[in-house]
């Protein structure tokens, strides 16, 4: 079986059918796990879908989770187009949140909301960008491996966050490890609050204006990667570094650009979580979203449209997972982390395992069609 | 007083180093064969869970050890199936293993034991305890009993096994024929293939050895260090082990040195909390905890010598036709 022949199939199969099949396999295995712990997969699925999509409040939560995953998913995707595997979304998001908190605590009381909020967004992106730029610089100019460095930077960011919270940002006399509350002006308005002003009544949920920011980020990434000159250079370096180098592009600079944008996108998680929901800096607010971004990007085939869909899928899984864990005693919300891992496994690491089967099916279908004339 | 402090720091350094060392050696064997292993954390975590679950239910140390090694080997085989047989991305596969382990251990723990993801405590008789009870505590006024006795001789069998395995892995890699082949497949798989030795078979063998060692590392956490499994109890140790292996430049003895350094930092961090060091002032405990990660970044950036990875590391091997 030679590779070129084995994997010949039309584009729609490669882009749509294969990812859906891999997702199905992951979900089937997850269903097996649910059976193993003695619950009914179908019952779990129906509670999950109902809890995530069945009412306005659940939908709000689903979209709030999806917002965070769009940011981290885009972050992984942009780095990937530049030929880099950014495993450091967790740290970049943590640092982005730190940027949000520092700015909000410093300027939140002094400036009007219409000025603070754009600055908050800028601070999140800038801090995330900085945290990603260091590993990028080290890879491009000093030859260290970006995967290892970004893993280390995740831990460094977490340690720094703990240190700052414990020693500097925690209000005097407070026992809990979190900063003081931000001024109202530094908080992203929640959607139900905005709706209230328009006379609409929506149930309260953490969904906030960051969703709009996430969709803007999707538009920006699409434009940047496929319409802009800089994006073309980035993709060229990502797919063929040598050729791009001969064509006059500077691969080192492209690494910095790809990781910079990637980090900025991951940093925006801070806007959704810290400015949008918590209203203060907390410990471990990223809660694995950086890693979820890897699954989201793999599922979405590194394309913003796919990433939106995959983020919705994971939003449903997260919100629905919480509901199922309330209803079914033996079911725990860590099931979602398991599903996430299975999706990374089947849609990422083992993405091509089923490709020969589909290629053979397609080939035999074509042959039969040809025989019929 | 000095002898008590030195003895207890030495003892806790060795205790903390043991799981790091076992795990780092596991990573070393896999990576010397050309397969990146980001999944150390997940394998150790799952092994710790398996050891605790089997030992607490079956009331047997051996059962715990076997279960841990079996589970870690199965995860290694999964890694091999994805990246050796199907040439998937080794980093992605490792990340997947970490996620699955982090999730599934809690899911199964809650479903089986209904204690918030913890396993029931393991019987004292089943746990691995020090080989000699004579040196359980350091003795004031006696250097021999404190430093040699408590510091070096008070440990359980896995501690000594881990350090013995450093020599074992070195001997295996440098002095035996399978070891030579294993190293060769990480440097130049095409050459090994041309010599008529199967590249996948060698890499699978390396992954199985890796699984056995990860299993030992995980069982140490629940059979020796803690009395039960609690969610995410590895807490980044797998990544520290990875860092130690890189810091040790993929060689057994330097890797052991790095593990000891990181273990010492960990043991010292607790004692240094709130203590002012002359000339430096009070060092925040987070800074000491972050030091292994920072040192690895600095090493990889080439500021303290070169870190030369096996040449074929991370590259799936495609047999030429």
From TrEMBL, chain A:
Molecular functions per Gene Ontology: transmembrane transporter activity
Keyword hit for 4Fe-4S: no
Cleavable signal peptide: none
GO terms for cellular component: plasma membrane
Spans traversing the lipid bilayer: 12-38, 58-80, 113-134, 146-166, 207-226, 255-275, 281-298, 305-322, 342-363
Keywords on record: Cell membrane, Membrane, Transmembrane, Transmembrane helix
Compartments, record wording: Cell membrane
InterPro entries for this protein: ABC_transp_permease (IPR001851)
Membrane topology: Multi-pass membrane protein
Highest taxon of source: Bacteria
Name this protein carries in UniProt: ABC transporter permease
UniProtKB/TrEMBL annotation, chain B:
Organism name: Paucibacter sediminis
Position of the signal peptide: none
Origin: domain of life: Bacteria
Bilayer-spanning residue ranges: 6-28, 40-57, 91-114, 152-173, 204-223, 259-278, 290-309
CDD domains in the cross-refs: TM_PBP1_transp_TpRbsC_like
Keywords linked to the UniProt accession: Cell membrane, Membrane, Transmembrane, Transmembrane helix
Keyword Membrane tagged: yes
InterPro entries: ABC_transp_permease
Stored Pfam families: BPD_transp_2
Cell location: Cell membrane
GO molecular-function term, one example from the UniProt record: transmembrane transporter activity
Keyword match Amino-acid biosynthesis: no
Membrane topology qualifier: Multi-pass membrane protein
Protein name as annotated: ABC transporter permease
GO cellular component term, pick one: plasma membrane
Main subcellular localisation: membrane
Lineage: Bacteria, Pseudomonadati, Pseudomonadota, Betaproteobacteria, Burkholderiales
């Amino acid at each position: 079986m030679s590779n070129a022949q084995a994997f010949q199939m039309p584009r729609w199969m490669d882009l749509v059918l294969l990812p859906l099949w891999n997702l199905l396999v992951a979900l089937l295995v997850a269903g097996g796990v649910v059976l193993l712990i003695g619950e009914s997969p179908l019952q779990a699925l129906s509670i999950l879908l109902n809890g995530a999509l069945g009412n306005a409040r659940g939908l709000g939560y689903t979209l709030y989770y999806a917002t965070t995953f769009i940011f981290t998913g885009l972050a992984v995707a942009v780095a990937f187009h530049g030929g880099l595997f950014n495993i450091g979304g967790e740290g970049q998001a943590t640092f982005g949140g730190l940027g949000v908190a520092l700015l909000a605590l410093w300027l939140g009381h002094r400036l009007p909301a219409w000025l603070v909020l754009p600055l908050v967004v800028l601070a999140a992106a800038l801090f995330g960008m900085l945290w990603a730029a260091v590993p990028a610089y080290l890879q491009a100019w000093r030859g260290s491996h970006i995967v290892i460095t970004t893993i280390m930077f995740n831990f460094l960011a977490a340690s720094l966050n703990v240190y700052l919270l414990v020693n500097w940002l925690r209000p005097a006399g407070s026992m809990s490890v979190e900063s003081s509350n931000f001024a109202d002006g530094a908080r992203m308005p929640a959607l139900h609050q905005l709706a209230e002003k328009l006379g609409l009544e929506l149930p309260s949920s953490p969904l906030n204006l960051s969703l709009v920011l996430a969709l803007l980020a999707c538009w920006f990434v699409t434009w940047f990667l496929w319409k802009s000159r800089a994006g073309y250079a980035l993709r060229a370096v990502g797919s063929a570094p040598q050729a791009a180098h001969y064509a006059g592009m500077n691969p080192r600079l492209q690494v910095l650009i790809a990781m910079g944008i990637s980090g900025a996108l991951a940093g925006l998680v801070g806007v959704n979580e810290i400015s949008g929901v918590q209203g203060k800096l907390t410990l471990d607010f990223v809660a694995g979203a950086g890693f979820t971004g890897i699954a989201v990007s793999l599922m979405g085939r590194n394309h913003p449209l796919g990433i939106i869909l995959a983020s919705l899928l994971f939003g449903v899984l997260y919100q629905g997972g919480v509901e199922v864990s309330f209803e079914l005693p033996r079911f725990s919300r860590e099931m979602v982390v398991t599903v996430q891992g299975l999706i990374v496994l089947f849609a990422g690491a083992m993405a091509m395992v089923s490709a020969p089967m589909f290629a053979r099916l397609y080939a035999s279908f074509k042959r039969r069609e040809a025989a019929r004339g | 007083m000095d002898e008590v402090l030195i003895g207890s720091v030495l003892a806790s350094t060795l205790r903390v180093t043991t799981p790091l060392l076992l795990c780092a050696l596991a990573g070393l064997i896999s990576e010397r064969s050309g397969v990146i292993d980001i999944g150390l954390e997940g394998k150790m975590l799952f092994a710790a869970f398996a050891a605790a679950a089997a030992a607490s239910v079956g009331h047997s140390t051996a059962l715990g050890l076997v279960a841990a090694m079996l589970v870690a080997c199965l995860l290694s085989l999964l890694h091999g199936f994805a990246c050796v047989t199907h040439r998937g991305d080794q980093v992605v596969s490792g990340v997947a293993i970490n996620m699955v382990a982090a999730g599934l251990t809690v899911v199964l723990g809650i479903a089986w034991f209904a204690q918030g993801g913890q396993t029931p405590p393991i019987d004292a008789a089943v746990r691995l305890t020090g080989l000699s009870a004579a040196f359980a505590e350091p003795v004031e006024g006696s250097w021999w009993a404190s430093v040699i006795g408590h510091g070096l001789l008070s440990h359980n069998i896995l501690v000594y096994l881990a350090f013995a395995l450093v020599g074992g892995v070195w001997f295996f890699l440098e002095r035996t024929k399978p070891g030579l082949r294993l190293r060769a497949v990480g440097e130049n798989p095409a050459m090994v293939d041309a010599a008529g030795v199967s590249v996948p078979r060698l890499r699978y063998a390396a992954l199985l050895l890796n699984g056995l060692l990860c299993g030992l590392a995980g069982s140490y956490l629940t059979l020796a260090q803690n009395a039960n499994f609690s969610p995410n109890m590895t807490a980044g140790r797998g990544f520290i082990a990875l860092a130690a292996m890189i810091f040790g430049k993929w060689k057994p003895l330097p890797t052991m040195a790095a593990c000891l350094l990181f273990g010492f930092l960990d043991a010292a961090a607790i004692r240094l909390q709130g203590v002012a060091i002359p000339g430096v002032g009070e060092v925040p405990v987070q800074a000491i905890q972050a030091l292994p990660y920072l040192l690895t970044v600095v090493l990889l950036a080439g500021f303290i010598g070169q870190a030369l990875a096996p040449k074929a590391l991370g590259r799936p091997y495609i047999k030429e036709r």
